[in-house]
Write a structure and sequence with these properties.
Structural class: alpha/beta
Number of strands: 15
Order of helices and strands: HEHEHEHEEHEEHEHEHEHHHHHHEEEEE
Strand content: 15-25%
Number of helices: 14
CATH architecture of the largest domain: Alpha-Beta Complex
Shape: elongated
Number of domains: 3
Length: 489
């Protein structure tokens, strides 16, 4: 590409970048405006003549993931807007993704409104972590609570670095509820309200606690066992019983978060597997666009995938604006390296780092950064991003190699017309094809290449058969790939 072409490409890219930046700023302003409007509309009625305390209920009755994280975050926001005095998390889940469970438990621990968990049947794995983060726990008869070992999609136990992280956050969550000072005569002891070792035993089957669990088994409590060991504040069969026992309210107003279809759609767009696919589309789109410069379908696909990747995070408020800006800056630096700056150096490397950082950090909740553990959310998100980038690049190379191959289904998206020389298509100058059949002399020795003189004009030539001496008569037999071929005449 010449310099003028690079400058033109840069100007086009600059126009697209400015447009995207304007739309991003507009989206941020609209989001803040709608949030203020919701606060005005929801907060005012809450205090108007309402003497009964408001108890707010949020149901988490499906697999822990992006959708349940949206439910919890929006539900707690609405509870604050309504001026609720208490929040009940209605739990019935077998678990899910640890990264979202960690975000939920962090939000609950930081809540200024008291949060109680009501375990209705199951609170396993990630659900156990969420229950443990609540200030009080009530369980229905026949319910279970625990089994927080980190597993993969097939149910197999993940390596110890993941278990180590889960042990740490379970222990830290139990410790967050503090301890009581117990005095017996002259002795004073500190007793944890929730024993951190019990929380660890829910993850690690190697931990043995006398009177609680033997080694070799992962700890799971029944309702009565949880009450006995201080991990449940009481038995309750209904939400009303939980409110009566946990908050002591006889008169109250119960409100419940009702998910919308938009919440489910945003949850779908925020799911880990879909994010992975979107990252692959971004990488593939950029790769194919570089193969065929200009503004085409691959670039449109990459921009659309980037929008779908960041849009649910921006609208939900789970990512900061600087994380999106970091990604955009990375794209700009990479474009400058490709279209403006010759070679590939520090600008391109910084662009790649910025792109990966923006994609990775946007997957982590703003209040949930954790660089302390190798298996933590940041490293987990980085692993997903890098894996998808590599997979997207490999897939792009495979697809580009298969496009146009005979018998391939992908050939339909490639140009199939053959540019035959007989039809006038040329890749080299074709004036010398008229020399075929003409005679001349060898202007130099051909060993086998040299120069020949035909019609008083000198041409580069190659001998078809052995050497040809200087001044020997020659005849042109063919012209191919810009080269004249001769034989002795």
């Amino acid at each position: 590409m010449n310099i003028s072409g690079k400058i033109l490409g840069y100007k086009k890219f600059n126009d697209y970048f400015c447009t995207c930046l304007y739309l991003y700023a507009y989206t941020i302003m609209m989001k803040k405006f709608l949030a203020a409007l919701c606060l005005l509309c929801c907060a005012l009625p809450a205090g108007a003549g309402n003497s009964n305390p408001i108890v707010y209920q949020i149901d988490i009755t499906k697999e822990i993931g992006a959708t349940t994280w949206i439910y919890l975050r929006k539900g707690m926001l609405e509870a604050n807007m309504l001026g609720a005095q208490a929040i009940i998390i209605h739990l019935n889940t077998y678990g899910g993704e640890v990264v979202y469970a960690d975000s939920i438990r962090t939000r609950i621990l930081n809540s200024k409104i008291p949060v109680i968990a009501f375990i209705n049947n199951n609170a396993a794995s990630a659900g156990a972590l969420i229950a443990l983060s609540c200030s009080k726990i009530y369980m229905r008869s026949g319910s279970s609570f625990g089994a927080a070992t980190v597993v993969d999609q097939t149910g197999g136990q993940l390596p110890d670095k993941y278990q180590s992280y889960m042990r740490a956050i379970m222990r830290a969550t139990a410790e967050a509820h503090g301890y009581d000072t117990v005095r017996q005569g002259a002795d004073t002891t500190l007793r944890w309200r929730r024993d951190p070792r019990i929380a660890e035993a829910m993850v690690d089957n190697r931990i043995a606690i006398k009177g609680v669990i033997d080694s070799g088994r992962t700890l799971t409590f029944t309702t009565l066992e949880a009450i006995k060991h201080g991990y449940c504040n009481g038995k309750a069969e209904t939400v009303e019983e939980v409110i009566s026992q946990g908050f002591g309210y006889a008169q109250y107003e119960l409100k419940q978060y009702t998910p919308s279809g938009f919440d489910d759609f945003m949850g779908f767009l925020s799911s880990t597997w879909l994010r992975g696919i979107l990252i692959m589309i971004i990488v593939a789109g950029i790769y194919f666009e570089l193969q065929s410069p200009g503004f085409g379908i691959p670039l449109v696909a990459a921009i659309t995938a980037a929008f779908l990747y960041f849009a649910p995070l921006i609208f939900s408020g789970s990512t900061a604006g600087w994380e999106v800006l970091l990604f955009i800056v990375g794209i700009v630096l990479l474009a400058l390296e490709i279209f403006v700056i010759p070679g590939f150096g520090i600008v391109g490397i910084l662009g790649i780092i910025a792109i990966i950082s923006g994609l990775t950090l946007s997957m982590i909740d703003n209040i949930n950064f954790s660089f302390n553990f190798p298996g933590g959310p940041v490293m987990g998100a980085l692993f997903i991003v890098l894996g998808c980038i590599v997979a997207g690049f490999i897939l792009s190379v495979v697809i580009s190699n298969r496009i146009g191959r005979k018998g391939s289904i992908l050939r339909k998206v490639a140009l199939e017309a053959e540019q035959e020389t007989s039809k006038g298509f040329v890749g080299v100058p074709m004036e010398q094809v008229q020399l075929v059949g003409k005679s001349g002399r060898a202007a130099t020795v051909l060993r086998p290449s040299g120069k020949v003189e035909i019609d008083n004009i000198y041409y580069d030539a190659i001998s078809e058969h052995g050497f040809i001496e200087h001044d020997a008569n020659v005849k042109v037999t063919r012209y191919e790939a810009g080269q004249v071929y001769v034989v002795p005449n």
